[in-house]
Amino acid sequence: MEYSDTKQVVDQSLEFPVTQTTAVEEIGTVEVTSPSGDSVTVREILDPIEEDRYQTSDALYAAIVGNLDETFIGRKYYDDRGSTASGTGAEGGSRVSF
């Protein structure tokens, strides 16, 4: 599944509060797939975390998504705000602000 589907799986599969052990037992084999096609299990994501209990599904979801590696972030350093690189500005150097 894509990591954007993780919240739904967490909400539907567990009752909160939940221990980390229970979360891993219940959804640990679920694979999260990166945009590049690599996948990692929820168990692999949660194992390094030293958390005993998650009070809410939001807390568990944040722990999962927050510990995904950089292959899940898409294009690294991508900026869609339209800024121009230094020295490549508009002709004449004038800027227009709205």
Count of structural domains: 1
Distance between the termini: 42 Å
Spatial strand arrangement across the major sheet: 1-4
Approximate helicity band? 25-40%
Helix count, per DSSP?
A: 4
Shape: elongated
Please write the string of helix (H) and strand (E) elements: HEHEEHEH
Question: Overall pLDDT, averaged?
Answer: 84
Instruction: Report the portion of residues in β strands.
Output: 5-15%
What's the β-strand tally? 4
The assigned structural class equals alpha+beta
Taking the sheet with the most strands, its summary is: 2 strands, antiparallel
Q: What multimeric state do the chains show?
A: single chain
Topology:
Blueprint: H1 6-13, E1 18-19, H2 20-27, E2 31-33, E3 39-41, H3 42-46, E4 53-54, H4 57-66
Antiparallel strand pairs: 1-4, 2-3
Helix pairs in contact: 1-4
Describe this structure in words.
- This protein has 98 residues and is an alpha+beta fold.
- The protein has one domain.
- It contains four helices and four strands.
- The strands form two sheets. Strands 1-4 form a two-stranded antiparallel ribbon. Strands 2-3 form a two-stranded antiparallel sheet.
- A hairpin with a 5-residue loop joins strand 2 (31-33) and strand 3.
- Helix 1 (6-13) packs antiparallel against helix 4 (57-66).
- The mean pLDDT is 84.
